[in-house]
What does this fold into?
Amino acid sequence: MTPIEVLEKDKFLKKKEDLRQEMEDIEFKYEQLMDNMLVRVQEINPRITAISDMWDCSESPIGVCAYDEDDDPARDNCVFCHDPEERK
Ligand SMILES: [Zn+2]
It folds into this structure.
């Protein structure tokens, strides 16, 4: 490699590491947010075991669909709007 290529390589590696770190931070904060939302909705309905990260829900107090996986393991019936998690 030429000296310029070495510099460029190092720049890319640095950038990749920065982005990996940023991605990790985002994933951590996202998990925290989802955990907080689950706890909040469980205060309203303790039967809820899961919330959807795919569907907004106008009838849900947390704004996303929520499921009771003991009664509904396939997540076919949102506790609030009764829509399934899997939709076409
Ligand atoms: Zn819903």
Summary: The beta strands are 50-56, 64-67. The chain has a mean pLDDT of 96.
